[in-house]
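Structure (tokenized):
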């Protein structure tokens, strides 16, 4: 694949630091708690939230090379990578999970990727599960004609991304006792905890089923910093059935939260985070006087989908 001159990520024009918004919600104030929303969804109109924080360090590391990355049929990460490619003039390739999708009309998310110039390459699910194996990855890159491209992992979580997300913790220093966010691949949690102050702790609400996220975050921190950084934990109870799953109860909660606070709530990540925080407050998990900052890492797409 061709490369371009090293692009200037500043052309993406981020709004940083992202706003910190206090909201009044009796499910928190009634228990003596403050709830803040860290509005990372406002960083950039197309590279939303943690996607900007994770992608820009990888774009800098790519140094003008084409980008190849991975995701499912409704991947926010694929959309963000494609948008970055269009804005910066970088060729992009998206390796999509599900060979069967190649013979179907593109859904709105994948259609947006191609409209932004991303070339899609579909692979079967068994191969996709082995994509981190070097031999399998090499075969996939050859088949996708992307041998010389810079590889960004699924969800964008690697050492470069972890260092990029450290700034999120720095922006929240001294503003909250607990910083909470929804987690898929763990890169944002791994990074932000390294930027928090010594008296702050981070809480990851896993949107995946399986209970493996703690070890993934630990591994990311070891690669990025040489060991565990900051005080953090993961709660695995609020995934609502697993990756990219929702339920009527979660939809109703998101609608109600949005109505209360004038904030459209993205279902697959942000809604699970906020639901989990309400449940934890009800359980008495936070002492009275605690300030909780919830990181809003995404927003709903017009077609109602969006997955990492």
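Design, position by position:
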């Amino acid at each position: 694949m061709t490369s371009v001159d090293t692009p200037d990520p500043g052309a993406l024009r981020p709004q940083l630091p992202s706003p910190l918004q206090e909201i009044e919600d009796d499910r928190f104030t009634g228990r003596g708690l403050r709830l803040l929303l860290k509005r990372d969804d406002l960083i950039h109109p197309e590279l939303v939230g943690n996607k900007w924080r994770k992608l820009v360090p990888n774009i800098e590391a790519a140094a003008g090379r084409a980008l190849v990355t991975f995701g499912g049929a409704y991947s926010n990460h694929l959309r963000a990578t494609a948008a970055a490619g269009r804005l910066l003039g970088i060729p992009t390739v998206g390796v999509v999970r599900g060979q069967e999708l190649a013979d179907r009309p593109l859904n709105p998310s994948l259609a947006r990727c191609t409209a932004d110039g991303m070339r899609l390459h579909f692979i079967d699910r068994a191969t996709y599960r082995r994509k981190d194996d070097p031999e399998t990855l090499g075969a996939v890159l050859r088949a996708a004609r992307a041998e010389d491209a810079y590889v960004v992992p699924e969800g964008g979580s690697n050492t470069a991304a972890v260092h990029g997300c450290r700034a999120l913790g720095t922006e929240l220093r001294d503003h909250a006792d607990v910083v909470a966010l929804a987690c898929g691949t763990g890169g944002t949690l791994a990074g932000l905890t390294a930027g928090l102050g010594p008296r702050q702790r981070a809480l990851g609400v896993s949107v995946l089923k399986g209970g493996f996220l703690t070890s993934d975050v630990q591994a990311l921190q070891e690669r990025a910093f040489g060991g565990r950084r900051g005080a953090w934990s993961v709660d695995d109870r609020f995934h609502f059935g697993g990756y990219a799953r929702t339920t009527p109860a979660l939809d109703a909660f998101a609608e109600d939260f949005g109505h209360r606070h004038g904030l459209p709530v993205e279902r697959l990540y942000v809604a699970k985070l906020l639901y989990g925080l309400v449940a934890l407050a009800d359980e008495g998990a936070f002492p009275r006087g605690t300030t909780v900052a919830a990181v809003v890492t995404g927003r709903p797409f017009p077609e109602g989908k969006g997955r990492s």
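Reviewer-requested clarification: Residues 66-148 form a domain with the Rossmann fold fold (CATH 3.40.50.1100). Strands lie at 20-23, 34-38, 67-71, 92-97, 119-123, 150-151, 178-183, 201-206, 231-235, 291-295.
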